[in-house]
Amino acid sequence: MSQPSVSLTRFLIEEQRAGRVNAELRLLVEVVARACKTISIAVGKGALGGVLGEAGTGNIQGEAQKKLDVIANDVLLEANAWGGHLAGLASEEMDHSMPIPDVYPRGNFLLLFDPLDGSSNIDVNVSVGTIFSVLRCPEGVTTPADEDFLQPGTEQVAAGYCVYGPQTTLVLTVGHGTHAFTLDREVGSFLLTTRGMRIPEETKEFAVNASNQRFWEAPMQAYVGDLLAGKDGPRGKDFNMRWIASMVADVHRILTRGGIFSYPLDSKCAPKGGKLRLMYEANPMSFLVEQAGGAASTGRTRMLEVQPTGLHMRVPVFLGSKAEVEAAVSYHRSHDAGAA
Ligand code: FDP
Predict the structure, then answer these.
(1) Are strands 205-207 and 240-241 parallel, antiparallel or unpaired?
(2) What is the model's pLDDT at position 319?
(3) How far apart are CA 152 and CA 297, in angstroms?
(4) pLDDT at 87 (0 to 100)
(5) What is each CA distance from 313 to 135, 227, 297, in whole angstroms?
(6) Ligand 1 and 120: CB distance under 6 A
(7) What angle do CA 104, 109, 112 make, to 5 degrees?
(8) pLDDT single digits (tens) 184-205
(9) pLDDT at 65
């Protein structure tokens, strides 16, 4: 007899029985997953749904918003407002966090999300995705403000992303491994397709936007220089490169077959601290990667230990296969030791 398929609902109920999530967190994940199904349908309609192109607005980061950025943000806000599982929400697309409106009961969790990451790829039909992170609302706080969200990534109780590609896949951790669920589009439910994803420790594949090379710091120049030198260089093996420019798609590849993803510090993004956002991108992805046996760093500090200073704080990112992330970090360490 073939194994019965495990739906996300069943998986979460079993996690609750095992004492790994409570009813509120289970509801929260289910609500986010339901919102992702709605976003998946909107993304899938493309030009037929009139959802492509610019919205004509900008976000807090000064980036032009796509129509689908706005739609995805609204879907997540609306879905999460009334369930009673959250105390507040923060989105990459909004200037400030938002407490749950007074008309609804407030729960004990805080939800942060990037509603549609990689959105510059929407119009060209390349995979994009939703990333989310869940924190506990600090004890005694009933109306959370921005500062209540400023907790290091080690405090996350759940994180995940949904990639809208040839398949719609939800990847989730509640702190006990990283698991992938594929959307059965006919039935409309997420089914467990990989329990306990494992990132190979070693890799021969790296992901970086190489057009920024001239702006990188010296240790990054040295690190990538040695990767490119291949078999004849100090690393003694040839590396291949992939850059989708959609973080969810690049990270999904790494969780599936290994590799290192990096968006390092460069002289263009240095005044902001990096390109990617700690709270909406780096932390949830780092939690997922660590739970799959990988590593994540800023190049100098374990990502999950970075103390956030603002909701929209940006950081340099290196994540993926453990040995390769450690290699990248060692170039930074040696450089900094030499400079000291
Ligand atoms: P986007 O700006 O399209 O939302 O989050 C930022 C991000 O995409 C990541 O998904 C992606 O990895 C990166 O930016 C791509 O940046 P570059 O265009 O600089 O390569």
Answers:
(1) parallel
(2) 98
(3) 13
(4) 96
(5) 17, 29, 15
(6) yes
(7) 100
(8) 999 999 999 999 999 999 999 9
(9) 75
Rounded Cα distance, 332 and 90, in Å: 32
Calpha distance 233→224 (Å, rounded): 11
Ligand 1 lined by 268 (C-beta under 6 Å): no
**Dihedral sign computed on CA atoms, order 313, 316, 319, 323:** negative
pLDDT of residue 2: 61
Q: Is the CB of 118 under 6 A from ligand 1?
A: yes
pLDDT for res 119:
83
pLDDT tens digits, one per residue of 197-233: 999 999 999 999 999 999 999 999 999 999 999 999 9
pLDDT at residue 51, rounded to an integer: 72
Q: Alpha-carbon distance 92 to 87, whole Å? A: 18
Ligand 1: centre distance to CA 10 (Å) = 34
Report the relative pairing of strands 168-173 and 158-164 from DSSP bridges.
Answer: antiparallel
